[in-house]
């Protein structure tokens, strides 16, 4: 007679759990070996072939910019950095991959940058028609054509910054008033971008403090966001209904929450019946058919994407110029002679600033040395692809190394690691074009290219001229002039400076 014993009666409890553990281990081992086998033809750090820990730990340490550059140096332009991630350090191939007609799309990693999950914004949205449609509604506003008073908002912000320095941070021979330029620069860019985005400045410069602890909260959450983005199941969990309470909300007293509340209030006023059609950025979004919730999200994007990025380039240019006496003197002389020849207004116009060759070369070097966004920005394709002559199986995440690209000796010369604006001045037309194409990648490319680029460039052109024509700057700590942490976006602090009025010996 066949046994009617159940499975649990024939197998003891410990043996059962032992079997489960064994099957689980075998399953993990098989999936690891399969993962390794898929990309076995791509070299990289040994552990990266088997686990994500190499990539996650480098992200956590804030050293990914250097580490990915080192990996590309050691293993070539394509290297493996995790079981399903490779990195590309070749500028032309990155351009091709990010280009308009590329077979690649943004990878699921971007989900990690949703500001109000599960809703997407331009920063988190993958390609396709929805993204293209959203961009078409935003582009007229971002281009500045549809917006009155864009330059005036920037001018007013810079003027407020100059007043702040003059009132509180000017040193003389009898008064020493050191200032953390890194922090104050971000107050300026936040006030400018909020004026552009919402029609009202946050008032960071007026209060001369980190309002709502916005900067410190955002800076401390960036490393975590970058790590979480690498772990798809964790993103899904954190963005699920159950974890809603952990996400920033307009009810929060600090961090992004209060900024969300401002966005909600200001945007809400534009969508009431018979609302006035204002010729500003938000007005442009409304006129081009952006829905109210989309407009709230995209206003926040401007603050997040458009404040510290611009401040980073300003700081990077300032710290490199101020610590290079020959460049510093020549740049001041270029600005002085334009002022003396009455070629520039106060403040300088964007057009005139573009005519100052050394200034432009310094800004380009600033982008190149420390790109504000140096995160992995992975792309993925549902078909096999070939990059740098190597077959990349469908479904592989392809990151870029900002360092390998921006410090490429074949593009920028053997001294690519040095801040050397003269490389732009002495390059022939062909070389210059190749270098331009490469630093353009600091703003992304194609379908996902930065929409705020014209705004950032106007700000930088004006800020640097207006600061250097008025003030002398000295870095206080030459051992470590600035603190840089590369958490996908570059977080900078402690650029302590002594600022004095030009030619002021009193
Ligand atoms: C120096 C300043 C800036 C740098 C280096 C920069 C860099 C970038 C990069 C690299 C991307 C593309 C990311 C990707 O490919 O996934 C991007 C996207 C974007 N940036 Fe910027 N950005 C800067 C300033 C700004 C400003 C001032 C604004 C707003 C006023 C802005 C708004 C945006 C938006 C809306 C996108 C999303 C575009 C899309 O996906 O369709 N950025 N930026």
UniProtKB/TrEMBL annotation:
Coiled-coil ranges from the UniProt annotation: none
Highest taxon of the lineage: Eukaryota
Keywords: Heme, Iron, Metal-binding
Protein's UniProt keywords contain Nucleotide-binding: no
One term of GO molecular function: monooxygenase activity
UniProt keyword Iron, yes or no: yes
Gene3D superfamilies: Cytochrome P450
Binding site for heme: 450
Cofactor dependence: heme
InterPro entries in UniProt: Cyt_P450 (IPR001128), Cyt_P450_E_grp-I (IPR002401), Cyt_P450_sf (IPR036396), Cytochrome_P450_monoxygenase (IPR050121)
PANTHER family: CYTOCHROME P450, P450, PUTATIVE (EUROFUNG)-RELATED
Protein name in UniProt: Cytochrome P450
Species whose genome carries this gene: Cylindrodendrum hubeiense
Highest classification ranks of the organism: Eukaryota, Fungi, Dikarya, Ascomycota, Pezizomycotina
């Amino acid at each position: 007679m066949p046994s009617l014993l159940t499975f649990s009666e024939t197998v003891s409890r410990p043996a059962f759990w032992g079997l489960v553990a064994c099957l689980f281990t075998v399953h993990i081992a098989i999936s690891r070996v399969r993962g390794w086998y898929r990309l076995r033809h791509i070299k990289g750090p040994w552990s990266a072939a088997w686990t994500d820990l190499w990539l996650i730990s480098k992200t956590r340490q804030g050293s990914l910019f250097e580490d990915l550059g080192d990996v590309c140096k050691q293993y070539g332009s394509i290297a493996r950095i995790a079981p399903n991630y490779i990195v590309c350090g070749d500028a032309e191939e990155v351009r091709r991959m990010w280009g308009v007609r590329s077979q690649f799309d943004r990878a699921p990693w971007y989900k990690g940058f949703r500001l109000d999950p599960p809703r997407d914004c331009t920063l988190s949205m993958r390609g396709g028609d929805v993204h293209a449609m959203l961009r078409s509604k935003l582009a007229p506003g971002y281009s500045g054509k549809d917006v009155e008073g864009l330059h005036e908002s920037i001018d007013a912000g810079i003027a407020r910054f100059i007043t702040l320095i003059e009132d509180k941070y000017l040193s003389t021979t009898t008064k020493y008033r050191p200032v953390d330029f890194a922090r104050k620069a971000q107050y300026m860019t936040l006030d400018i971008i909020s004026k552009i985005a919402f029609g009202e400045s946050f008032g960071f410069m007026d209060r001369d403090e980190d309002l709502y602890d916005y900067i410190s909260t955002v800076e401390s959450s960036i490393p975590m966001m970058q790590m979480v983005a690498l772990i798809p199941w964790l993103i899904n969990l954190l963005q699920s209904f159950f974890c809603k309470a952990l996400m920033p909300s307009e009810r929060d007293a600090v961090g992004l929450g209060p900024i969300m509340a401002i966005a909600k209030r200001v945007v809400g006023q534009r969508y009431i019946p018979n609302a006035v059609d204002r010729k500003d950025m938000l007005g442009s979004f409304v006129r081009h058919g952006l829905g109210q919730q989309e407009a709230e999200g995209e206003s926040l994007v401007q603050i997040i994407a458009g404040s510290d990025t611009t401040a980073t380039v300003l700081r990077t240019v300032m710290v490199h110029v101020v610590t290079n006496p020959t460049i510093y003197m020549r740049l001041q002389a270029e600005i002085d002679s334009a002022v003396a020849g009455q070629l520039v207004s106060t403040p300088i116009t964007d057009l005139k600033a573009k005519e100052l060759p050394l200034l432009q070369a310094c800004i380009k070097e600033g982008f190149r040395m420390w790109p504000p966004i140096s995160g992995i920005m992975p792309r993925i394709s549902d078909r096999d692809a070939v990059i740098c002559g190597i077959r990349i199986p469908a479904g592989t995440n392809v990151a870029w190394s900002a360092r390998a690209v921006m410090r490429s000796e074949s593009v920028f010369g053997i001294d690519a690691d040095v801040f050397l604006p003269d490389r732009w001045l002495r390059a022939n037309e062909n070389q210059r074009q190749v270098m331009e194409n490469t630093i353009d990648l600091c703003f992304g490319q194609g379908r996902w290219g930065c929409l705020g680029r014209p705004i950032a460039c106007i700000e930088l052109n004006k800020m640097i001229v207006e600061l250097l024509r008025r003030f002398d700057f000295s870095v206080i700590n030459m051992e470590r002039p600035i603190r840089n942490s590369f958490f996908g976006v570059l977080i900078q602090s402690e650029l302590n400076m002594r600022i004095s009025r030009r030619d002021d010996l009193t």
